[in-house]
Amino acid sequence: MEIDHIPLKVQVSLGSVSLQSEVVSLLQTGDILLLDQKLDEKLAIKLGGETVFKGIPGLEGIKKAVKIDE
Q1: What is the CATH number of the domain that holds 30?
Q2: 35, 34, 32: which is closest to 16 by C-alpha?
Q3: Which pLDDT tens digit goes with each residue over 40-56?
Q4: Could you say which residues of the chain have pLDDT below 70?
């Protein structure tokens, strides 16, 4: 088996938020969560849980995308 053909999961996260369990139970469609990531901050692009690149969010046609910047 060639190692070049093993699928790898690449993850890009827009941010996270910590909420109390009672708040989570009250969430509903239309609620807005304030994330810890600023809009002008580059996103971490992770491979195996480790940041390997930084990128800028955007669109490619109608799909969400991230452009590797660092």
Answers
A1: 2.30.330.10
A2: 35
A3: 889 999 998 899 999 99
A4: 1-2
Domain count, the chain: 1
- Residue range of the domain that includes 55: 3-68
Determine if the pTM surpasses 0.90: no
Long-range Cβ contacts of 7-16 (<8 Å, 24+ apart) = 8/47, 8/48, 9/47, 9/48, 10/45, 10/46, 10/47, 11/45, 11/46, 11/47, 12/43, 12/44, 12/45, 12/46, 12/55, 12/57, 12/66, 13/37, 13/43, 13/44, 13/46, 14/43, 14/57
